[in-house]
Fold each of these.
Amino acid sequence: GIQVEQSPPDLILQEGANSTLRCNFSDSVNNLQWFHQNPWGQLINLFYIPSGTKQNGRLSATTVATERYSLLYISSSQTTDSGVYFCAVVPQGGSEKLVFGKGTKLTVNP
Amino acid sequence: EPEVTQTPSHQVTQMGQEVILRCVPISNHLYFYWYRQILGQKVEFLVSFYNNEISEKSEIFDDQFSVERPDGSNFTLKIRSTKLEDSAMYFCASTDYRETNYGYTFGSGTRLTVV
């Protein structure tokens, strides 16, 4: 099945710093989403981005489907950005299930 | 933005007991899902449900699991005889493929602890 690799696995930042999280996938996809899992365990949908670029406040994401990767940018990070960021894809070929990566654990220190 | 609602948020049960996790998907969505996340691990697909039947299930979704849409709004996951290894966060999700701006919407999860 499709492989979803996220990097880095862990990231520690000082408040105000910028960061880039990467998601590589091994096959063509119909859907790609980025989620933030907060300390309470909730999965917050950040972007639905099978291709192209989107921005929402301090966050933006770019997916280059032909090269099978997506990037999540966090600018001017805040302590509330801490948590785990998951990339998830729906592979082409009929299956409708989301396949998640292992996540990037982000810690933003004050 | 519409929400997927899950109840309860936490449940503690004794090994061997049956549990039912409840979800109210977004009202105009047609596809429903259950996922689970064992503590510290990635989110795993359990089952998808469309048109009142299971459309896909993973190897995790064995005979002790079942899903049901008992009425027009609720979607439930039943675990017949819980095991210690069923302890996890269980997420419900829904989508309507026509709504291409949002993808899948997840509920806040039910944290199940089997003791």
Amino acid sequence: DTGVSQDPRHKITKRGQNVTFRCDPISEHNRLYWYRQTLGQGPEFLTYFQNEAQLEKSRLLSDRFSAERPKGSFSTLEIQRTEQGDSAMYLCASSLARLAGGEQFFGPGTRLTVL
Amino acid sequence: AQSVAQPEDQVNVAEGNPLTVKCTYSVSGNPYLFWYVQYPNRGLQFLLKYITGDNLVKGSYGFEAEFNKSQTSFHLKKPSALVSDSALYFCAVRDEDTGGFKTIFGAGTRLFVKA
């Protein structure tokens, strides 16, 4: 399978715990995006990488959230001291810089439930 | 600031009839516009995009969309709906001039195609 993969697919945690999600983009894609999606809403932009550089970060992203893409390949999204309001589907997408328009290819998502 | 509106939460259409899913947008620069589809338990899939050129763009699964600059709209259309088209559809916009690579999604429209 050469699509975007995310791990884990589901995560249940208790409030206050830290969680980390992984995204593996399509191999030749140099752009990587993280989104959050709650029920009844569209994906909400969180952050964006071009290669290993984090170029944009939503103001909605609190200091408890951090993302990395250390070698310009896979990326991790960490949420520290989780809160119930963090419960959502976390989506990763990748795109190819040279493709005009830059449509994104999405992974299946990681569903986070904070108890 | 960029924004997208999908005025209909749900669209119902009979199989074989034409369908339209509406989208309006707001950007300060030139828009890149996208439609994505989300089937149950599957990730978002790219359908089509408008970058420049012809106002009518064609995409996957027989879908097309019409860009209307004066009305700031990008409605999704299909001449003859199939039951298998039933899914959640998202319109998205990126501001080519000022928005970087941040993509804003609408809240989604659920399409029900009845046999």
